[in-house]
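Hi Y.,

Following your request, here is the sequence exactly as I used it, all 207 residues.
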Amino acid sequence: MITLEQYGVKLIRLQEKDIELVRYWRNQSVITNYMEYRNYITPTNQVKWFKSINNKSNYYFIIEYENKKVGLINSKDYNPKLGFSEGGIFIWDKHYLNSYVAIYSTLCFLNFIFHHLKISKKSMARILRNNPRAIQYNKQIGYKLLPNQEDAENQLYELSEEDYMICGGKLNKAAALLNPQHQTLKYYGVVCDENLDEVNALLSKTL
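Below is the corresponding structure, written out as tokens. Let me know if you'd prefer a different format.
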């Protein structure tokens, strides 16, 4: 269990009690239409999926804002030898689709990964090429389309630590100005087997 907080958003690591909420929204067309996997997800499928990702290599977080659970953000399939994982995010609450919640959540997560955890030098993201909104969003953060991905349906983007320092730095400055009382990243939680050793080491310092 680990929770991250910054800029008014709270990222709470996904627990089994919330997987039905995630399943409900993941099955909605407003979300599914922008996902590579579009089959209906059953309760049994969801439990199997949760058991497969509740481990050291995968970090899925419920996004909470203004005391509401509004979306999901994740870092999956972390490769310790290569030092990167694949990120993703979706907001299901329509009241926050055009707000700063997504960017605040992404900054909070990436700030933790690059500035505090310090075990990754880059992040990957897959985006359907017919999703211009997501493409623009990720480019704003610093993600770049990799070579030979122009004709791919599900395109692969890469965010280097250096590019995040530039693009993310500008966004962090703006976010800090808008949230002067919540600009410091906070993290807390329980040391457990489902965390990377590096995550547990950080949490141990906060106990």
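Residues 62 and 72 are 5 Å apart (CA to CA).

Thanks again,
Q.
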